[in-house]
Design goal:
The structure holds two protein chains of two kinds. Chain A is mainly alpha-helical. Chain A is built from 14 helices and no strands. Chain A folds into two domains: 4-104, Alpha-helical ferredoxin (Fumarate Reductase Iron-sulfur Protein, Chain B, domain 2), CATH 1.10.1060; 114-221, no CATH class. Helix content of chain A is 59%, strand content 0%. In chain B, the strands form four sheets. In chain B, strands 9-8-10-11 form a four-stranded parallel β-sheet, sandwiched between helices. In chain B, strands 5-4-6 form a three-stranded parallel β-sheet. The chains are: A mainly alpha, B alpha/beta.
Chain lengths: 226, 394
């Protein structure tokens, strides 16, 4: 009888191989290491795109071994894919494995997503991923003394931008409520809210409440127009 | 021998070992079958034909464009999109910038894995349908959106199941499955407009040494769908960005790590910046300064501009006191063509010191700074801001 860990290993490997991109991404490997030579993450982490492909070819045990911190080291630049003489795409494999880790609520995903919650909150509630009011000095002290300047009188400085859609601080550009409502529908239909729920129920609740409020306000506005 | 090699022209180019997916023919075929609505490039878009990596001809629309904005550009490099629109105004070109656009959400996907192909493809189709219904052709500002949309287009063309799933979502939105005939990055627009841009030049930039950082998601993701030109590095490197600098008469200096990524890493820049700043300073800024003696690092994407600019200051902790200004190609071009560095190019948001560069370009930054400060005070007193266009609100 396979134990839970064996079952998980097997399922993860099957989920990886069932992804329609997998057979485009893993085609064979000469072990030449050109991908690793181009890899930025390899210079600073215990990570190599050559190993990613070798592990896929070796089977479920080795793939399972990457589901911790390993897959989160990749910078997703796709230098590896650009240079591979076999047309492999190790960065693409990592993207699939990260999806699997998130979908299954694995510990590595939860750990990685925790400090990432601000971005998730922005993208799911405002329709874009970074906003002027996120660049706070206490969060980016290593970016130097000009960051506090930028945050001072932020609203006024954003008003001075000659692109009218950019005169906002809570989002990168003003996103129409109808458009946010569409993004909400896409995320709902594609199961993205479920992914957040599995990994960070508290965040999921905040997002859901915020989005529901915005949708309700939008629908009320639409009803008034009719 | 080395000089001969460097000067050699490459008649046909290809990514090593890559067999490009013939998306264009298959996309048009799907369009004819009614499987997908294809946004055509029309005469009114005034297309210019160029060559891609594998020699395929790609038409770049130059007029009547729908601005698909970038989260990071709009969020913290606002002079980036402003410079694109400023050039369009200078050329009298038609465009539409509006609030009915969502993020492509790919930064989130590559950073956190909290998305999937269905959502990414549906977002792509949603934004393309919006552009389609306005009658404007989408121009993608962000390198990551550009790479992601190229990937989603290929997946949608290849996989009927995905098309069916996305179409279902589109119908819930009251939309259809739409893909443009070509997915076009603003740097490609800048490339085909470079000679017209050069005619607007007001500043002598011949003494300015530039170093180019080509963005990974423009030329490494779906590499066959990006412009190469035998006049730029003999066709061995991506043409956009370098080409506009050459057209303006600036010096473009080579450096050993030109092909490295910037260190952005999507999640690293936000939550593991030890990597981003170490990589950016050691692998990019240091060679640009020490090997190439660069006056400015010129970029073509959102994350790279942010990473290379913002990561320099912390280098002081290790005695690496670099101050290499970082800006997008279109911002540099706007400066060379007389744009206001404060009100238009919005260099105030950039971190690494850029004033010495402006002096080298013959730009009196003190005058512009004074005017900017006065402008802020006027706005504070309730004056209406100056705009590149009038926003249409539905």
């Amino acid at each position: 009888m396979p134990d839970d860990k064996d079952r998980e290993k097997h399922e993860i490997f099957e989920e990886l191989r069932a992804d329609p991109r997998y057979h485009d991404f893993v085609r064979g490997c000469l072990n030449c290491g050109v991908c690793t030579g181009w890899c930025p993450s390899h210079r600073f982490f215990d990570y190599a795109p050559r190993i990613v492909i070798q592990n896929c070819l070796a089977g479920e045990d080795r793939v399972y071994g990457m589901m911790g911190e390993y897959i989160w080291a990749c910078a997703q630049c796709f230098s590896c894919a650009m240079v591979c003489p076999f047309n492999n795409n190790p960065g693409g494999v990592v993207a699939i494995l990260r999806e699997i880790a998130v979908r299954r609520g694995m510990m590595s995903a939860k750990r990685v997503l925790k400090p990432y919650s601000r971005v998730l909150l922005k993208v799911m509630t405002f329709g874009n991923q970074v906003s002027p009011d996120m660049i706070q000095p206490d969060f980016f002290p290593d970016w130097g003394p000009k960051i506090p300047w930028a945050q001072e009188d932020l609203e006024l400085k954003r008003q001075a931008i000659p692109v009218p859609t950019l005169r906002t601080v809570e989002s990168a550009w003003k996103v129409a409520e109808s458009t946010m409502n569409e993004l909400y529908t896409i995320n709902k239909e594609a199961g993205i809210f479920d992914l957040v729920e599995v990994n960070d129920p508290g965040l999921a609740e905040v997002i859901e409440d915020d989005v529901q409020d915005k949708v309700a306000a939008y629908l009320a506005e639409e009803a008034k127009k009719e | 021998m080395i000089t001969d090699l460097a000067r050699m022209r490459v008649p046909s180019r290809k990514a090593p070992g890559k067999k490009p997916f013939p998306f264009h023919e298959e996309l048009l075929e799907l369009g004819e079958k009614g499987e997908v609505i294809v946004i055509p490039i029309k005469e009114e878009n005034r297309p210019v034909e160029v060559e891609c990596l594998d020699g395929r001809k790609k038409r770049i629309p130059t007029n009547k464009l729908w601005h698909h904005k970038s989260c990071g550009q709009c969020g913290n490099i606002p002079g980036y999109p402003a410079s694109i629109m400023w050039f369009m105004n200078r050329f009298g070109l038609e465009y539409l910038d509006e609030t009915n656009q969502t993020s492509c959400t790919a930064w989130n996907y590559h950073g956190s894995g909290t998305s999937n192909v269905l959502a990414l493809a549906a977002v792509a189709s949603r934004n393309f349908h919006r552009a389609y219904e306005t009658g404007y052709y989408p121009l993608i500002h962000c390198g990551t959106s550009f790479g992601n949309y190229k990937e989603m287009r290929n997946l949608l063309v290849e996989h009927k199941e995905l098309r069916d799933e996305v179409r279902k979502i589109m119908h819930k939105l009251g939309r259809e499955l739409v893909l443009p005939e070509e997915i076009v990055h603003y740097s490609e627009w800048l490339h085909v407009m470079r000679h017209d841009i050069a005619k607007l030049r007001t500043q002598d930039v011949s003494q300015v040494v530039t170093t180019v950082h080509p963005a990974c998601h423009t030329w490494k993701m779906i590499p066959e769908d990006y412009i190469y030109d035998t006049d730029v590095y003999g066709g061995r490197r991506p043409a956009p960005t370098t080409s506009v600098l050459l057209a303006l008469g600036a010096q473009v200096a080579d450096y050993s790590t030109w092909n490295d990524c910037c260190g952005f890493g999507f999640r690293h820049i936000l939550t593991e910046r030890e990597f981003s700043r170490s990589f950016a300073v050691n692998r990019k800024i240091k060679p640009m300064v020490e090997e190439a003696h660069s006056d400015v690092c010129v970029t073509q994407d959102t994350g790279c501009t942010t990473t290379l600019d913002k990561c320099q200051w912390i280098g002081r902790a290790h005695g690496m006191k670099y101050e290499l200004p970082v800006m997008a190609d279109v911002q540099f071009a706007a400066l060379a063509c007389g744009a206001d560095p404060f009100k238009l190019v919005q260099l105030v948001w950039h971190t690494a010191e850029w004033r010495p560069l402006l002096e080298k370009m013959g730009i009196d930054w003190r005058k512009y700074e004074g005017e900017y400060k006065e402008y802020l005070e006027k706005l504070r007193s309730g004056a209406q801001p100056e705009s590149l266009y009038e926003l249409k609100v539905e």
